[in-house]
């Protein structure tokens, strides 16, 4: 192998630049190769950067090998560069997200199979005859498949092999998933849906960049409609990616997809076993997998012919990766589409303010589905003013809410009590000395999980057994729970509705996704009367029998007062109340609140979504906040408060003066200590058109280096300010 060519290779480590190597003449950008790096060998990809001309040829190290996989396409390489540049992440780290399934680079082992040599066995038996009948015409089988089909034991097949009657052959592996068939089933769309589907089909057929915001109340048929865009892409021989925010939602989606296309899509998320991920990755790269449903990281799969991305529940915070290189998968989906020239569908019943503004400005097509399918009425929403109609002492449910639940159950419906708090109580304190249980690693209270007998921090996972006595004063039976979590709420519900079949759903549910799916199925099948749940049950699930929803603490999300508190609370409560009445019939939702005049509560009660968006968008505009300005955060963290604060202050001083850019902070994070790290935040704000990234790069280059255990992380378009 002549090693004459000089190439750049990007390697999946935290560096921005590519390294220069020599290799065979036919190396081309996108090729996945093995290269020496320091004292080890790593996988990398030949990149488009010009190689470093300074390094003498004799000093260049050689590419050690090339994998027999399709090269990373030019649009994917540009996407990697773009994501790195926009989010200030090292390019190598973005490449690492692409090369997530290293096993996929090796060819798959063929399956071991057997076929008939044509020889007759020395002694023929009925069982042997049945085996040979199955192999008639030169068919090959796996051993176990053959034994099963012939109805014989494995020993019979083994005996024929040993006697030379059968021989082994390599079988190709069956595909990971069968091809979806766009003509498998055609839905009967109503007029509104049909018009929207036609528009989406048009976008796909134009085979050009475009973004459609599919905006319609829960149950309006958004999924039904965007599956038509998927069909259009499949018909044109394109691959399709559907992003969902929560793994638990993929199960229902897989079935929905199979109903429409006769086959399930491939899955890509953290619950898929490594082997399955490798097959998905390679299938996508080779073009054998036509449709994928996945979590945000699926955006980095090496599609060959991607023709459509759907981002379901596009407003969901789960699309924002926060640690280790933060980025928004929703926004990056739009970027990938822009680079490769295909459309994106953003679907939501409660779009993000960003997407609504983009739609109103004409940058996105705004497709609205106004009513529920078959005109199933939306639930009527009422506020319960806790100041006048509050619960009796020691109770969390007001008489009106209890009455609504009784009515729902008496009418044969289901009731959902929603409380977005895991565990038994958010705070435990000692009545004798006032001691509060705090996390040793975070500035947060420990949450009691009575069922498991532990106190736990929901930020770092620290867990300790709930003690018998107060660790500060030693008093026993003095510890009291303050406030409710779902476990505590469940106690009250059990006392008030002893006959009802109840289930409590939160991410603490033992048994993982499989158990959650089983519980959701049980609810849908009517095996449960009362559901008590956190935001886990707010999203996407279809509960046909649910007729009433009670929001136990509608004010919970509004307390933080951060930039997105109103938007987030509106979205969450719309999603939760939207679970009710999905298959026709009267339904209602009740919001327990101490602030019934709050704009969010009023918007929910009046059902006037457009008014809510208009108001919230205006507030953002007036405050000069995103999306009318751009924000970026620099977060300084370290184990020592004074050092972290000192560095943040020094960083602030080194911010380049710029008439366009306003730098705020350093401010201590609302959760000041997280996992033992003290955190200070600087915020840079610039007008929309301004390249804030360039400013940040200049700033960071001029800043004093973060020494020792200090870390500075960049968060472009920050969503969370905790
Ligand atoms: P969304 O995604 O907007 O919440 P879905 O697509 O899940 O709405 O539709 C809500 C329910 O109505 C689903 O059970 C779906 O199967 C049904 N549905 C919606 N549109 C149609 C249609 N045109 N034909 C048959 N069923 C439909
Ligand atoms: Zn903690």
Q: Would you count the extended β strands for me?
A: 31
Which bin fits the share of residues in helices? 25-40%
Low-confidence stretches are none
Largest pleated sheet:
7 strands, parallel
Based on the structure given, which CATH architecture of the largest domain is correct?
3-Layer(aba) Sandwich
Please identify which CATH superfamily of the largest domain we are dealing with: P-loop containing nucleotide triphosphate hydrolases
Structural class: alpha/beta
Number of helices: 20
Throw out a few tags for this protein.
6 domains; 722 residues; 7-stranded parallel β-sheet; GIY-YIG endonuclease; alpha/beta
Structure description:
There is one protein chain. It is built from 20 helices and 31 strands. It is α/β, with parallel strands linked by helices. It has six domains: 5-99, PriA, 3(prime) DNA-binding domain (GIY-YIG endonuclease); 111-171; 191-371, Rossmann fold (3-Layer(aba) Sandwich); 376-421 and 486-617, P-loop containing nucleotide triphosphate hydrolases (Rossmann fold, 3-Layer(aba) Sandwich), CATH 3.40.50; 424-483, no CATH class; 629-716, Alpha-Beta Plaits (2-Layer Sandwich). Strand 1 (5-10) and strand 2 (19-23) form a beta hairpin. The longest helix is centred in the first third of the chain and has 16 residues, at 191-206. The protein is globular, with a radius of gyration of 29 Å.
């Amino acid at each position: 192998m002549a090693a004459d060519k000089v190439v750049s290779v990007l390697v999946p480590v935290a560096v921005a630049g590519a390294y220069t190597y020599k290799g065979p003449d036919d190396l081309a950008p996108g090729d996945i190769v093995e290269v020496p790096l320091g004292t080890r060998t790593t996988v990398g990809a030949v990149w488009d950067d010009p190689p470093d001309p300074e390094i003498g040829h004799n000093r260049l190290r050689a590419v050690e090998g090339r994998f027999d996989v399709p090269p990373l396409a030019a649009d994917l390489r540009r996407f990697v560069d773009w994501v790195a540049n926009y989010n200030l992440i090292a390019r190598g780290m973005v490449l690492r997200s692409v090369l997530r399934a290293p096993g996929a680079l090796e060819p798959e082992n063929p399956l071991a199979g057997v076929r008939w040599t044509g020889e007759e066995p020395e002694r023929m038996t009925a069982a042997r005859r049945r085996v040979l009948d199955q192999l008639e015409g030169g068919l090959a089988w796996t051993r176990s498949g053959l034994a099963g089909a012939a109805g014989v034991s494995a020993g019979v097949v083994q005996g024929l092999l040993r006697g030379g009657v059968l021989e082994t052959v390599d079988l190709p592996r069956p595909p990971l998933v069968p091809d979806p068939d766009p003509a498998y089933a055609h839905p009967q769309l109503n007029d509104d849906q049909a018009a929207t589907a036609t528009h989406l089909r048009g976008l796909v057929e134009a085979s050009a960049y475009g973004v459609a915001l599919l905006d319609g109340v829960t149950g309006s048929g958004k999924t039904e409609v965007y599956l038509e865009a998927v069909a259009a892409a499949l018909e044109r021989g394109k691959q399709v990616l559907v992003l969902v925010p929560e793994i638990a939602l993929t199960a229902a989606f897989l079935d929905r997809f199979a109903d429409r296309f006769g086959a399930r899509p491939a899955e890509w998320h953290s619950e898929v076993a490594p082997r399955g991920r490798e097959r998905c990755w390679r299938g996508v790269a080779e073009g054998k997998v036509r449709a994928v449903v996945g979590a945000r990281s699926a955006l980095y799969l090496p599609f060959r012919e991607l023709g459509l991305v759907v981002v379901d529940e596009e407003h969901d915070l789960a699309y924002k990766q926060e640690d280790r290189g933060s980025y928004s998968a929703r926004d990056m989906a739009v970027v990938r589409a822009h680079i490769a020239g295909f459309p994106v569908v953003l679907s939501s019943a409660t779009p993000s303010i960003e997407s609504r503004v983009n739609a109103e400005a004409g940058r996105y097509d705004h497709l609205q589905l106004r009513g529920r399918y078959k005109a199933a009425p939306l639930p009527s929403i009422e506020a319960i003013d806790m100041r006048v109609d509050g619960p009796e002492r020691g109770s969390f449910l007001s008489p009106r809410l209890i009455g609504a639940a009784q009515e729902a159950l008496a009418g044969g419906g289901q009731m959902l009590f929603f409380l977005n708090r895991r565990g038994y109580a958010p705070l435990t304190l000692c009545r004798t000395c006032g001691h509060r249980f705090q996390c040793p690693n975070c500035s947060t209270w420990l949450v009691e999980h009575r069922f498991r007998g532990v106190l736990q921090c929901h930020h770092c996972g620290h867990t300790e057994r709930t003690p018998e006595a107060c660790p500060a004063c030693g008093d026993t039976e003095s510890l009291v729970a303050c406030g409710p979590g779902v476990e505590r709420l469940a106690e009250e519900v059990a006392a008030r509705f002893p006959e009802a079949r109840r289930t409590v759903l939160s991410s603490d549910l033992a048994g993982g996704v499989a158990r959650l799916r089983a519980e959701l199925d049980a609810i849908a099948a009517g095996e449960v009367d009362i559901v008590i749940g956190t935001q886990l049950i707010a999203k996407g699930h279809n509960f046909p029998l649910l007729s009433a929803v009670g929001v136990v603490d509608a004010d919970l999300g509004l307390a933080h007062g951060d930039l997105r508190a109103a938007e987030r609370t509106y979205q969450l409560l719309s999603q939760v109340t939207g679970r009710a009445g999905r298959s026709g019939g009267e339904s209602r939702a009740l919001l327990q609140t101490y602030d019934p005049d709050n704009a969010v509560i009023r918007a929910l009660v009046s059902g006037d979504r457009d008014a809510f968006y208009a108001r919230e968008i205006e507030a953002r505009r007036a405050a000069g906040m995103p999306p009318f300005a751009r924000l970026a955060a620099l977060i300084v963290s370290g184990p020592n408060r004074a050092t972290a604060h000192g560095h943040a202050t020094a960083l602030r001083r080194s911010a380049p003066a710029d008439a366009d850019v306003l730098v705020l902070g350093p401010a201590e994070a609302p959760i000041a200590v997280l996992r033992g790290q003290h955190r200070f935040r600087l915020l840079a704000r610039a007008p929309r058109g301004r390249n804030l990234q360039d400013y940040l790069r200049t700033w960071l280059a001029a800043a004093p280096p973060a020494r020792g255990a200090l870390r500075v992380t960049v968060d472009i378009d920050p969503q969370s300010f905790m």
